[in-house]
Amino acid sequence: MLKFRYALYTQMGHLRIFWLVVGLLVIVLSLEFSTPPDYVFGYLYIGPILLASTYLSRRITFQTTLIACVLTLVNIWFPGIEIVEAPTIASRLIATLALIVTGVLSDRNRLYQQTVLQQQAKLKAQEKLASIREDFASTLTHDLKTPLLGAIETLKAFQHGSFGLVQPKQHSVLATMARSHRTTLQMVETLLDVYRNDNEGLQLHLVPVNLVEIVEEVTTSMTDLAASRRVHISLHHGTSDFRQFLWVKADALQLQRVMTNLLTNAINHSPRGERVEVALEPGASHQTVKILDNGAGIRPDELPHLFERFYQGQSDRQAKGSGLGLYLSRQIVEAHGGTIWAENRQLAGASFAFRLPTFPYDPSGLA
Questions:
Q1: Are strands 286-292 and 275-281 parallel, antiparallel or unpaired?
Q2: Alpha carbon distance 55, 213 (integer Å)
Q3: Cα 17 from Cα 11, distance rounded (Å)
Q4: Nearest to residue 338, comparing CAs of 274, 275, 286?
């Protein structure tokens, strides 16, 4: 019913515009034929042409333009009361040309506006679809956390013997299952955090943080993963072998996630028996952390896209993961006012690094 009423109102509106165009044509026509040919009122036909082009169909616009041109030229000889000279004919030809140009340009403008409206409609539809997809993904990942947590706790109970004696071979299988579930849970949480950060922004709890402590804690927690890959992790403080303080104002938990993502990436892409180096470089304006591996390098055409969401490169190095870990790391580092990047090493392997603004902090309490 509402659609019918809307169509009826639209049709009535077009009908009013049509009769307005006809009325304007009649008014200009009366001015033209009631005055000598030297007075060119044909330019006033531009009004009806623009109205027809804006509110009516292309066919009516063409007909209106044609009628206006014909009436402008006919007034040269009709009503034939006075002798028409060459300048008058030239003036009317110019007026006719102006009417034709007006009709053509208004028609092009109509087509352009229609194209713009169609593109806007497509864009809105795509944005709505993207929003639905993101809401679905966010809801799905949130709902997946509960069964994953339940499975992990159940596996822990099995490992602790809550359901009976566990054989050594079963311990190995249960440990593999628990590790796989924890990895899946980490991916789900990363996906959930990415969508939350994109929609709501990253909420940070900023306090003075010593980057050295963050790096040492994450490096220690990665020992088992590195051992399983037969990869050795080394930590050094730039040009110095002595432990230093690298103070930044940051969210310690979020920086741990960045370090975990980058170090896990380096370990997973290092050949067995190789070394992953973590280098801390203090600076007057920025504190820098670099993770260097000896694995496969990065193709030059992939370097600008490594930190994009869901990016999966074509090289062997980019074959693993969801493509979200590096994107989340970029979100966190940029939210701290820092910079994150990747580059190939001179001989072999890749370097992933980030820098954060230095924070002048005095542990005694005086900043």
A1: antiparallel
A2: 70
A3: 10
A4: 286
Same domain, 249 and 181: no
Residues 84 and 139 in one domain: no
Per-residue pLDDT of the chain (367 residues; tens, 9 = 90+): 555 565 656 677 778 888 888 888 888 888 888 888 788 888 888 888 888 888 888 888 899 999 989 988 888 877 666 666 788 888 888 889 988 999 899 888 888 888 888 888 888 888 777 676 666 666 766 677 778 878 888 888 888 888 778 788 888 888 888 877 777 777 777 777 777 777 767 788 899 999 999 999 999 988 888 888 899 999 987 666 666 788 999 999 899 989 999 999 899 888 888 899 999 999 889 999 999 998 888 888 888 888 887 776 655 554 455 567 888 899 999 999 999 999 998 878 899 999 999 988 766 654 4
Where a domain ends, among 200, 218, 247? 200
Give 119: exposed, middle or buried? Use CB within 10 Å, 0-12, 13-18, 19+: exposed
Assigned domain for 254 exists: yes
Contact partners, residue 356, CB within 8 Å, separation at least 6:
211, 248, 250, 286, 287, 333, 336, 337, 338
Residues in the chain: 367
How many independent structural domains does the chain possess? 3
For residue 86, count other CB atoms closer than 10 A to its CB: 7
Half-sphere exposure of 52 (CA within 13 A, CB side): 29
364: in domain: no
Axis crossing angle, helix 168-200 with helix 86-159, rounded to the nearest 10: 150
Structure tokens at 311: 């990016």
For 338, phi and psi rounded to 5 degrees? -105, -170
Whether residue 259 is contained in a domain is answered as yes
Buried b (16+ CB within 10 A) or exposed e, 192-223: bbbbebeeeebeeeeeebbbbebbbebbeebe
Which one of 200, 222, 253 terminates a domain? 200
Supply φ then ψ for residue 163, to 5 degrees: -115, 20
Same domain for 65 and 163, yes or no, is: no
